[in-house]
Amino acid sequence: MAHPIEITREESEPAANTRLLAIANEIDRFEGYSEPHCTRIAEIAEAIGRKFNLASHDRFIMRQAALAHDIGELAMNRDYIGVNRGLTSAEMLDMHRHPVIGEQQAAKKGLSRGAQLLIRWHHESWNGGGYPDSLEETQIPLAARILSVADAFVSLTSKRPYRNPHSESEAKRVLTELAGIKFDPAVVKAFLEITETGMTATEGISATGSE
């Protein structure tokens, strides 16, 4: 049963964060992650957002979306999610529905419209080959482009039932190879610059992402 995470104008940021962390933890458990997944994505996205000088309100909306980005998968509740094998073509096609379902679920839970749209678009690709709307380049909001890179890096470096985790260097190589294809080259560049300063992908980022 999903946790209620209604986010209202009257609700404080810490209270909203607590509610969102509950749904993030539920998503992690459902998808079979043994370590925090959604929160790592949120923290990396926060760091990249700061690199682009995103306003604090925009980063808060992006954090909402990061913590609940796979709420659509949770709602779909498919048995094939987290299985010890790759997905069939039919399963993959079905899985491509989760961003739209996620947008709908985020609306039901009271997330901001901005967060709903970021959830819808976090699988769009720079070259227009993503889903569900085949947006390309700057048609995709910057925050969604940031989420895409953060999600990919965390997914690549996480252990999955069907594969071992990639090393950070391997994951960064994949991001570099897909820059200009799947990912915004400027976002990949910003992420690599963050990691090249000597900190890890999440070091020095607060748990709440607040100022």
Structure description:
The N and C termini lie far apart (33 Å). This protein has a single domain, classed as Hypothetical protein af1432, CATH 1.10.3210.10. 55% of the residues lie in helices and 0% in strands. The chain is globular, with a radius of gyration of 16 Å. The protein is mainly α and 211 residues long.
Task: Please supply descriptive tags for the structure shown above.
mainly alpha; Hypothetical protein af1432; 0% strand; single chain; disordered C terminus; 211 residues; 55% helix; disordered N terminus
Brief synopsis:
The chain has 211 residues and is mainly α. It contains ten helices and no strands.
Count the strands?
0
Q: Helix/strand/pairing class, anyone? A: mainly alpha
Terminal residue distance:
33 Å
Average pLDDT level: 85
Structural shape: globular
Radius of gyration from the CA trace?
Answer: 16 Å
Q: Provide the low-confidence segments as ranges.
A: 1-10, 201-211
* Known CATH architecture: Orthogonal Bundle
CATH class: Mainly Alpha
Number of domains: 1
Fraction of residues in H or I helices: 40-55%
- Strand proportion: under 5%
CATH fold label: Hypothetical protein af1432
CATH homologous superfamily name? Hypothetical protein af1432
